[in-house]
From TrEMBL:
Cleaved signal peptide residues: none
Species whose genome carries this gene: Prymnesium parvum (Toxic golden alga)
Domain named Rhodanese: residues: 133-234
Name used for this protein in its record: Rhodanese domain-containing protein
InterPro entries reported in the protein's UniProt record: AB_hydrolase_fold, FSH-like_dom, Rhodanese-like_dom, Rhodanese-like_dom_sf, TrhO, TRHO_N
Family annotation (Pfam families): FSH1 (PF03959), UPF0176_N (PF17773)
């Protein structure tokens, strides 16, 4: 990943006059073209900013000159793709650095527990609860259930307390029921980046008094632990972060989360997909349209995008199964006015397993093809198809049907496909279509090396289903996104030009590009 852009996480407990302090940060960020979120309270500030690495470092240096005590701040700087950066700046004055929901006197910053560096924290976990540790050791998570649901510390001989809470302000009430279990224990506390433990450890010290043997907090949180132990150490799964990276962790992180509908392994909270099995929260056309707004602007004059909603309503917990076909067609950025398909909700190109099919085995591919026939008939013709994730698999399936001159696909006709973060949709009706040899359709395959939703190898496998003489591969350094960097847009435009009427272009040649984030 290019080091030009980065994300900066930090917090600083430092008594301040919040309104003028907030104004200084607002002006500094504007001057340096930084975006993100800053919360300024009388006790200090907490922030996540993104932008060019050099400007982030300049911001940190300027703040340290303004507040010399910031020399001790743990500035967590992580490389990021341009697409992962914030697009706006929000600086707000708040009552607390983090909202624990108790009076400030119940958790004063000066009462925070002692810090353990990542290596020291790891050593405690290695010793476990044996004699060497000097008694029982308890891990205490201060995060919300949806955070520890996809990643948490686990160590043999060490009990882990995971709070079933949805927001930090619920943590004190939950803790009241755990105080008896913590008596005589050494408590190791952790959170995402450290700021919540500063407050939570102070509150625990106030409430437990001398009943707890020792209390420590992980310095820099899970972020710093994973820096020190890139393979994960005692941390299993991924660390949920509150920026466009969504979750970070080892490259081969174990999936510890479970879909709340079907209990299949899942660890992605993006709007694109949470669970590949029940297809809950699959990317709908509405969310894809919003995420592609920057790309649409850059493609003006070269390509016009028409957005088509998928036909199958995704059932959610508490809803009856919904197998009815729905959909909608919107052009360009006009779709910003409203939600996705007809009737709202989320839609998929395939029906979730068990929905409205004969003995639960019909995945709805036939209905999808019939639905798209209507789209082509009523809104076509179209030069090509652009599909994302499962939509890319559906577009590939249509290309295979078109190559077979399947009667049921008419009047669907197109000249090329662009498949973004695609896969071959194993265990579905699409997959057999892609196994019949090289599909003779010009194709551009776009995927990110850091994609944690669809593995890059899966996108490469989909590319292999197409004729090598007619395919291009465009890799970028981001994740499960449609990239809009200048370099990537240039390659898209070059691909489209081959199909522009009246423009002389050279014969189509396969090419593989590695698109650097700009």
């Amino acid at each position: 990943m290019s080091s030009e852009y980065a994300i900066l996480l930090f917090y600083h407990y430092h008594p301040t006059d919040a309104p003028p302090e907030a104004e200084w940060h607002r002006a500094a960020c504007a001057r340096l073209a930084l975006c993100g979120r800053l919360r300024v309270a009388p006790q200090g500030l907490n922030g996540t900013l993104s932008g060019r690495r050099a400007q982030l470092l300049e911001y940190a240096a300027a703040y340290t000159r303004r507040a010399p005590s910031a020399a001790s701040v743990d500035w967590k700087l992580s490389a990021a793709a341009e697409e992962q950066c914030f697009r706006s700046l929000s600086v707000r004055v708040v009552r607390e650095v983090v909202s624990l929901g108790v009076p400030a006197t119940a958790a004063p910053p000066e009462g925070a527990a002692a810090h353990l560096r990542a290596e020291e924290f790891d050593a405690w976990l290695r010793r476990g609860g044996g004699r060497e540790a000097g008694g029982k050791v308890v891990l205490l998570d201060t995060r919300n259930c949806y955070e520890w649901g996809i990643g948490r510390f686990e160590a043999g001989g060490v009990a882990t307390l995971l709070p079933p809470i949805r927001q930090f302000s619920e943590w004190p009430r939950w803790l009241e029921g755990q105080l008896a279990a913590l008596e005589g224990c050494t408590v190791l506390m952790y959170c995402t980046g450290g700021v919540r433990c500063e407050t939570a450890s102070s509150y625990l010290r106030q409430r437990a008094g001398g009943a707890v043997k020792q209390i420590f907090q992980l310095y820099g949180g899970i972020e710093r632990y994973l820096d020190a132990f890139p393979s994960g150490g005692f941390f299993r799964g991924k660390n949920l972060v509150f920026d466009k990276r969504l979750a970070v962790g080892p490259a081969q992180a174990e999936v510890v989360g479970r879909c709340f509908v079907c209990a299949s392994p899942a660890d992605d909270y993006s709007r694109q997909r949470r669970c590949a099995h029940c297809r809950l929260l699959l990317l709908s056309a509405a969310s894809f349209r919003g995420r592609s707004a920057q790309l649409q602007r850059k493609l003006r004059g070269h390509a016009r995008l028409v957005f088509v909603d998928a036909p199958h309503r995704c059932a959610t917990a508490g809803e009856a199964r919904a197998g009815e076909a729905r959909g909608g067609v919107l052009e360009g950025e006009a779709g910003r006015r409203g939600g996705g398909g007809a009737g709202g909700g989320r839609y998929s190109w395939l029906r979730a397993e068990g929905e409205e099919g004969v003995e639960g085995r019909d995945d709805g591919w036939g209905d999808t093809v019939a639905y798209l026939r209507g789209v082509f008939r009523d809104h076509g013709p179209f030069d090509g198809l652009l599909g994302f994730s499962l939509g890319a698999a559906a577009a590939a399936g249509l290309a295979a049907l078109q190559a077979q001159r399947a009667a049921d696909v008419l009047p669907i006709a197109f000249r090329f496909v662009v498949l973004v973060s695609g896969h071959s949709a194993r265990d579905t009706s699409i997959h057999p279509l892609l196994s019949g040899g090289a599909i003779p359709c010009p194709s551009l395959h776009v995927f990110g090396r850091a994609d944690e939703v669809v593995a890059p190898a899966a996108s490469e496998n989909l590319a292999d289903c197409f004729s090598p003489e007619m395919r291009s591969v465009l890799q970028h350094h981001g994740g499960h996104i449609l990239p809009a960097t200048d370099a990537c847009v240039k390659e898209l435009i070059n691909f489209f030009r081959q199909f522009t009427p009246g423009v002389s272009v050279q014969a189509y040649q396969p090419v593989e590009q590695a698109c650097e984030a700009k």
